Amino acid sequence: TAMNGTAFENFVCVIYNVSFMNCTWNVSRTAQGDTQYFLYWKSSRREDFMECQNYIKDNHGRHTGCRFQNVIIENKRAYFLVNASRSGQIIQSYEKNIDLYTIEKLTPPLNVTVNCTGLSYRCEIQWQRPRTSHVKRDRCFKYEIDVENM
């Protein structure tokens, strides 16, 4: 379903590698060819919206996403606005608010080491928590270990 008739769908943002964020959307087949999309965002209610500086484009030059750097998660809620425009006129707007910590894709645990002793068939596995910009306590993480016998 198109968002409010804007003929684009599936607005999704993901934060990866601590401070990079991609936001993307799909342009539906019903969108007219000269429709262009502009993304604005702010990381607190009091700020002014800023336009995307690094658009992702499709083969027709239409904006289908944005790449962000130096995103600070903390406990921030971000506010997103996408305008669909044709011939310089805004034809539709779509807004979405996202708590940034909910869209972070964590890096793998760091410095994983495995020490096994052949005599007792015991192994000790150690690691450090993933890099993240906003979680400071180790107990906030849960881990799952999958052991396969070769």
Automatic annotation (TrEMBL):
Keyword Mitochondrion in the entry? The reply is no
Keywords (alphabetical) are: Glycoprotein, Membrane, Receptor, Signal, Transmembrane, Transmembrane helix
Places the protein is found: Membrane
User: Domain Type I cytokine receptor cytokine-binding: where?
Assistant: 11-101
The annotated topology with respect to the bilayer is: Single-pass type I membrane protein
Q: Name one GO molecular function term.
A: cytokine receptor activity
**Entry's Gene Ontology cellular component terms:** external side of plasma membrane
Domain of life the protein comes from: Eukaryota
Q: Name one Pfam family in it.
A: IL6Ra-bind
Name recorded for this polypeptide: CSF2R factor
UniProt organism field: Eudromia elegans (Elegant crested-tinamou)
Q: What gene is this protein translated from?
A: Csf2ra_0
